[in-house]
Amino acid sequence: MGRANSRKKGSKAVIIVVCVVIAVAAVLGGLFVFGDLNWQAKYPLKYEELIVKYADEYALDPYFVAAVIHTESGFDAEAVSGAGAMGLMQVMPETGEWVAGKLGLEGFNKEMLLDPETNIEMGCWYLGFLKERFPNEEAVMAAYNAGHGRVQEWLDDAQYSTDGTTLDSIPFKETENYVKKVTNAYEKYKEHYELG
């Protein structure tokens, strides 16, 4: 009788341990699955072929282009900001008109900025223009957000740049945050995606 009880207790203990292990595995598995889903939702990737195509054409890192699109519009091709910036890379209509002239694109109208291919090409052309003008990606990011004239002023001002090429500080909080967001997104896209 004593042995039977002891066997039953042993069996119950094994069953409890197995149930606990299964429960813990299910919870951890769920966390990994939901964590991954959460990551996918936070850092989506669309228009991959267009990003690679125009990043290559304008000598850009495709992960950098993806990070800019993520930060600018969250990959919403129809995004329009309060200031009037449009599309995936949030190109202002005036900038779009200027870039269209450089690209030899005739009949430009601002609605064209809502077309993913046109928007990515123009955004990449402009990033390439900034890359030729500024010596590092931080200045390029800042210029994409605040304008290249303003960033050049900051680089020329010893208060913001001691060497004239690197921004020691960014006087606009919005631009400082923008640079941090793009940098963070760039790391995430490089870590989790294969582009090109």
Describe the structure.
With 196 residues, this protein is an all-alpha fold. Helix content is 67%, strand content 0%. It has helices at 2-42, 48-57, 62-73, 93-103, 116-133, 137-146, 148-156, 173-192. α4 (93-103) crosses α5 (116-133). Residues 23-35 have low confidence and may be disordered.
Mean pLDDT: 88
Considering DSSP H and I runs of 4 or more, what fraction of the residues is helical? 55-70%
Stretches with pLDDT under 50, minimum 5 residues: 23-35
Structure classification = mainly alpha
Number of helices: 8
Radius of gyration: 25 Å
- Please tally the β strands and state the result: 0
What is the strand content? under 5%
Largest sheet: none
Report the span from N to C terminus: 72 Å
Q: Tell me the overall shape.
A: globular
Order of helices and strands: HHHHHHHH
Key attributes of the depicted protein:
mainly alpha
Layout of secondary structure:
Layout: H1 2-42, H2 48-57, H3 62-73, H4 93-103, H5 116-133, H6 137-146, H7 148-156, H8 173-192
Helix pairs in contact: 2-5, 3-8, 4-5, 5-6, 6-7, 6-8
What's this, in brief?
The relative contact order is 0.12.
